[in-house]
Amino acid sequence: MVEYRIDRHSGVATYVQIVQQTKQALRLGLLRPGDQLPTAREVVEATAINPNTVLKAYRELEREGLVEARRGLGTFVRRTLGAAPADSPLRGELEEWAARAVRAGWDRDDMAALFTAVLDKSFQGERS
């Protein structure tokens, strides 16, 4: 099951953080079709956010066809995203790179900037 972490200082709307974290779990294979998302009550208890915020995020995921709400039962994953399993060897390499960057004195924003620049270069031909 996914555990949501809300960063109140990120500038990203809380419901968007829930949507993004759910999509990340789908991409990594941490959530699979048929899995149940935490109930709104469970998310509220764990994060101290408004229940309507959770419901808004779940409605957005449902609108995108990723989950479905079953009245009286909960919200369930309908389909997955991507093909980046959490246990991929590439993840280990990326973790090693991040550890080296931290040892070199880089902070999160430094690493994110470099990683984003490399991604942008790698996917340059896919933009329309």
From TrEMBL:
Keyword Cell division: no
Alphabetical list of Pfam families matching this protein: GntR
Domain HTH gntR-type: 12-80
Keywords: DNA-binding, Transcription, Transcription regulation
InterPro entries assigned: Tscrpt_reg_HTH_GntR, WH-like_DNA-bd_sf, WH_DNA-bd_sf
SMART domains named among the record's database cross-references: HTH_GNTR (SM00345)
Gene3D superfamilies xrefs: Winged helix-like DNA-binding domain superfamily/Winged helix DNA-binding domain
Any one GO molecular function term: DNA binding
Name of this protein: GntR family transcriptional regulator
